[in-house]
User: Fold this.
Amino acid sequence: MSNSAEWTILVFLNAKNNLEQYSFPNFLQMASVGSRDGVNIVVEMGRPKEHYTEDYGGWSKTLRFFIRRGDQPLETCALADLGATDMGDITSLVDFVRWGRSTYPAKHTMLVIWNHGQGWRAPPGRPLAPVRQAGGYRYVSTDDDTQSKLYNRAIQDALAELLAGEKLDIIAFDACLMAMVETAYALRGVADIMVASEELEPGSGWDYSRWLQPLVDAKGAVAPEDLARQLVRAMASEYRDLSAATLSAVRLDRSATLAAAISRFADAAIPQLSATTIEIWKRARAACGIYGEEAGMDSIDLCLFMQQIAGSALAADLRARASEVIEAHDATVLDAYASKSRADGYGSRGLAIYFPASARAHAADPDGAGYDADNKLHPVEFVERERWPAFLRAYWELVP
Assistant:
């Protein structure tokens, strides 16, 4: 099956944290479909030493599965036992991707990273933890056993080296707050398409059967852009307007063009930040809902902010630059879903961007140093190369 496959779906399912109990339904959704006729479903799943549940034998290690229909997350169903691996270490992810592509080659490959993202994936009916998971450094996939995490810059650099000029068809995050300009820009050399959420994800995350079943029914004969859209539409069907949920599919090859438009906007904006105009700027920022605000996050929808500027009383050239950003954004986003609560007042057109409302808010972000000009720890390439950070620093001088 593997040598003639259309798609290999690689799922890096890191349940070595307080999401452990939510990993089992997702595994069973995959197994309700199973690898069949042109589609390989391959999972690397880890569970912590100190369990949140003893379900399925209470094993504490990392197992690899080639998912067949009817499988369960049991040691007896596993293809390989990796022992106590660190799923917050980039070498674990790279080893999984290398092994998966080699063992189950296919015309198309999708990598899903399942875990906490730049925020808490919110368990239904439970308050969000006050611990902040994000800030400027940007990371995903935390391992409670080791206290390590996968920084976006490490994912970017390590996968680019592994792929050596090739690209994954899709990189997707079943995790919170990953649909950001910064993330898309970082992964433009790693994959063609990114699927991710601007907002916190509900605890149950995706329903994998909703998009895997049509893929298997088509024997894998689904183009990457169409599969990405299927993921977005599956999220929309699952949550509709019942939860605060979002999901976006983004063309990564257009992220650099979007970043350039943002930089042009920033260069036009900085000279126009002044004591006489700052209230206009503050109103524009205040009009944008904050994703993961209850968990202390600081990202807003890029388009909604630019719409506020484009319709403001600021100078015509600046308003034109804001409109150019919107145009570049919409050319980058393939598809986007937002429940009503995350469309109204949030925008949720596809990509968010880091924008603490004041210098104080930025200083309070425990990972906010990732946006400092001199940061060298897990540096965000967008911060290093583009002009948005300069705009933010100029803004914060007027909004302490």
